[in-house]
Amino acid sequence: MSPSTAWRPTLPPGAGQPRRVGGGDINEAYRVVLADGVEAFVKTREDALPGEYAAEAAGLAWLAEPGELRTPRVLALDERYLALEWVEQGRLEGPGAEELGRGLAATHAAGAPCFGDAARDREAGFGSLRLSNEPTEDWPTFYAERRLLPLARMGGERGVLSSSAVGAVERVCERLSDLVGPSEPPARLHGDLWSGNVMAGTDGRPWLIDPAAYGGHREVDLAMLRLFGSPSGRVFAAYEEHSPLAAGWRERVELYQLLPLLVHALLFGGSYIGAAEGIARHYAG
User: Fold this and answer.
1) Which residues are the active-site residues?
2) Strand-pair partners of 214
């Protein structure tokens, strides 16, 4: 591609002083000063999907709605970019970790109207992967038909997963009603809650960023939070004090980690493939 046709990032009108910052593996991210003088974090990329940034903005607002945990305010929104208030980063200290645990428990308890997205027109984004949030009547059906099966079949079609691994995921899905534990109402999930999507301000208190929000089982968020660079155990202790988990939750942690591991196997390959296959075979029976 010649310099004259190279893609250039789209920023909000009047934005100036752009500086590249870390923003994940998919988007390009910039720290800018908007036309009104306010500093903002802007994410953008050439192949952003229609509605992608609008869905993220809606997810941030939905998670902030109960008033338990902070999310950055949306300052500007376009099909080509999302501008959020700039949050100066600090460290999640002990009290902040406990606030995260309590706040996450209360946010989950704020609930959702269904398993999935009641608006029916929003997808969940996991990097470049899009998954349906079409509601289902129960959690095992949603977890199977909207998460595990589509990912496994994509993995098979792309040659990432072996046919035996796809078969193992399919057998897990057949058994989900017996594996997911006691029935619970839909929780208000972040949906992509690894440690990189929890940040702390300079006050040491938590912020949630980059959600793929939907109504689901609360153990999904907690399992993913334990998977990649798990935060302090004070987070989970505070959560349990506020909202104890159902009996047997430890045996379900890897069941819910299967979701992010399949996503990572598709996006990055490598050791994630073997990890996902191993977990699928374990629960396949």
Assistant:
1) 192
2) 189
